[in-house]
Input
Amino acid sequence: RKFQGWKCMRSKSDKKKSLVPSLRFPEFREAGAWEVKRLGELASRITGRVGSKKLIPISISSGVGFVSQAEKFGRDISGKQYEKYIALERGQFSYNKGNSKTFPQGSIYQLQEFEDAAVPNAFYSFEFKKKYVPEFYNGYFEKNFHGHQLARFITSGARSDGLLNISAADFFSIVLPTPTNRDEQQKIAHCLSSLDEVIGLQAKKVQALKQHKKGLMQQLFPAEGETTPRLRFPEFREAGAWEVKELIKLAGRGTERNQKGKIKRVLTNSAEHGVLDQREYFDKDIAIQGNLENYFVVDQGDFVYNPRISSFAPVGPISRNDVGKGVMSPLYTVFSFRQSDTDFFAHYFNSSAWHSYMRKVGSTGARHDRMAISNSDFLAMPLSVPNPKEQQKIAHCLSSLDEVIGLESHKLDALKNLKKGLMQQLFPQDVA
Output
C-alpha cells in the first residue's frame, strides 16, 4: 500500500493484537509491540488559571474542535468564572466532559486554532511530555479510543450541568498504546496530517461552492421589498416584475393526523440537512411511539416548517420532504403546493428572501430558541413568484449547482472514510 510516497506493510507478528497495529511502515516492522502507557504517564495536567490575563474564552464543539464562545453561543458565557478558566497554549489538549452524538463519552482536541486561549476549568487540560509526539495521539482521540474506555466509568449519566460524571483520576487512567520509537510516532502523525491537508483543501472547495450558490441565490431572488431580482436570464429580462402572492393562494396546510398511530416512521426537519428520518439524525427515536397519533402525516413532496431557531436557520427552516411518507411533530407546520413542479420553491426556501416577513410577524417567545407564529400569519407569507418557465430555469440552474456540490461532497466523504480506515490499521484495536 502506498500513501504520500510511503509504502506501508502489514506486520508479520500477530501477537498481542491490542498492542500491535495491523499496518506498519517497513522500517518499523520488527520494532515489536507498542508500550502500554496510561495518559497520566504520557502527559501532565494543566491547571494554571487565567487570572488577569486577557485571553479569548473558548469552548469545544464536537466534530469541529475549539471555537470561541462568541461563535458557539453568540456571546461570551464565561462571566465571573473567567479568572478561574485554564490558560491553554497552542499544541496543548483539553477534554470536554459533555456528551454528544459523535463522542458520547466526551471529546478531546488539540488547540490549533489560537496561539493561546481560556478554556473552562470543568475541562481536563493537559500536554504531552517532550519524549512523545503530541500529534500522534490525535489519531486515538479522533477515533474515540478514549471514549470506549471511559464508558465503564459512567454510572449515573450527566450531572445537572450537563457534564459526564468522570473524575480526573479515571480520565488520566485511559490507556494509549505507544510506539517505543519516537520516529514511528512521528511517521504516523505526519502520514495522517498529510491526509488532513488533502481533506482540508477538499472541504474548502465544497465550502466555496456553497458560498457561490448562496451568493447566486441572493441575485436570482428579489431582495427584501423588491419584486425583481438583480440577475435574470436573458430571455426573461423584459418579463416584468414577479407577482407577489400569499402562500395560502399557492399552497394548502396539511392537517391530517396519524390515525391510531399507524405510521411509525418519524421524520424531522434539520436546518442543515433538511427532512430526514429522526433515528438517522439523532441515532435514536426521540418521539414516544405510543404518542404518534397526534403527529401530522407528511407525504413525499410536502413542505415542512420547523420553528426551532439555529445558526443555520435564524427564523427556522422550511424544507421539502424528499425522503418519503412519515409523520412529524405537531410543533411543525406542514403544507403542500397545488402545482406539481415545486423545485423552484424548494430552492426559494433555502434563500433568505422570506426571513424578513417571519421576523416581522413572529416572535421568539420566552425560550428564545423557537419562532412563535400563528397559522394565519404563516399562510399569509408573501412570496415573489415568476412565470412557470422562469421558475423552471432558476430551479434547473440551482439544481445543477447542487449536483456539483454533491459530487465534491462525496469526494470529501471518501477522503474522510479513507482516513478512518487507515487509522483503524495504523493504531492497535481498543484495549478496554
